[in-house]
């Protein structure tokens, strides 16, 4: 039985689009996310996770930042949630939520303030802590 050229082309397109491990192909841009400590003095500890990745615990000194990058999925379901601790307080926030953020580009800069995180850009958008 002879393979159809159309079937081979369709299979090749599927491999290029979805990759062998169902992740996005390498030509899809990675998303870069930076959080800057603007609490006004104290060091904070941040622990970010997604469904598939635990980024570990990091200490962020005043006026310094923590950065990570990742490959969002094409279904707009990527979610990174973080806990922040400083001065005996524990706060939580979804630092990347694909339905909210994915159409805003591939570089995200956040400032972490006592009253909540703010996403910087053309428009500053601040959010309350959870």
TrEMBL record:
Subcellular location: Secreted
Main location: secreted
Family annotation (InterPro entries): Self-incomp_S1 (IPR010264)
Keywords: Secreted, Self-incompatibility, Signal
Pfam families in the cross-refs: Self-incomp_S1
Signal peptide from the UniProt entry: 1-23
Similarity remark: Belongs to the plant self-incompatibility (S1) protein family.
Name of protein: S-protein homolog
Classification of source organism: Eukaryota, Viridiplantae, Streptophyta, Embryophyta, Tracheophyta
